[in-house]
Amino acid sequence: MEGNRVSYRGLLSLSDLTPNPLKKVVAIWNDLDTETQSLCAVSTQESITVNLTDDSMWETWGEWLFKRCEVSSNEKLLMILHKVCNISIRCLEAQWVKTFYKKLSQLIKDKIECCTEDDMCRKLKKFESLLNL
Does pTM top 0.70 for this prediction? Predict the structure, then answer.
């Protein structure tokens, strides 16, 4: 799950889905409160991940997500940006995340250069400024 508001209790309930309970719940770029993040960090439930790491699985996922951004229309790209531009300092500890956001920032600049709609340009520029870390 990316870019959703979900509680710790909500995350736990995902592993109880029937008839096919989830073995691994990955909830990143969510507006998790501090308590939920803490509970997930110390939880014995290793099946819940709420932070990005240097794990190669994440890097591959980031590459897939970037390709999704490249081929998306400006409208679809904005929907993706709303989810993935919730950047925390903790996320930026992983090198692939820094690279992902740098590439995403360049993609947004390229989209702005080709954009002909003022409203869309303004929205893209908002995200460009967010990503200028």
Answer: no
2 contacts 29 by C-beta, under 8 angstroms: yes
Strands 25-26 and 48-49: parallel
Q: pLDDT tens-digit profile of 115-124?
A: 999 999 999 9
CA angle 88, 91, 95 (to 5 degrees): 140
Q: DSSP letters along 4-67, please?
A: ----HHHHHHHTT-SSS--S-EE-BS----HHHHHHHHH-S-TTEE-S--S-HHHHHHHHHHHH
Extract the tokens encoding 3. Answer: 């870019």
Alpha-carbon torsion (65, 68, 73, 75), positive or negative: negative
